[in-house]
Amino acid sequence: MKKFKYKGYDSSSAEMVGTLEAENYSEAYAALNYQGVTVVKLEQTQESFAKSLENFWLKMKLGGQWNSVFFRELSVMLGVMTLHDSLKTLAGAAKNHPSEKILNELVTAVGEGQNFSSALERYEIIFGGDAIQSVEIGEASGNLQDVTARLAAQLERNYSTEKKVRGAMYYPLFVLLAAFLAAIILVNVTLPVFENFFAEQGGELPLVTLILLHGGKFFSEHLILIVFGFILSGIFFATVYNRVKAIKFLSDKLKMKIKLLREVELRNFFGRLSFLLESGVTLDEAIKLCAAASKNLFMQKKLTEIKFSVERGGNLGDLVAKENFPPLYVGLIVTGEAGGELVNMLRQCESMADFEVEEILRGLPAKAEIFGTLIAGLIVATLVFAVILPIFDVTNLL
Question: pTM score, two decimals?
Answer without folding.
Answer: 0.69
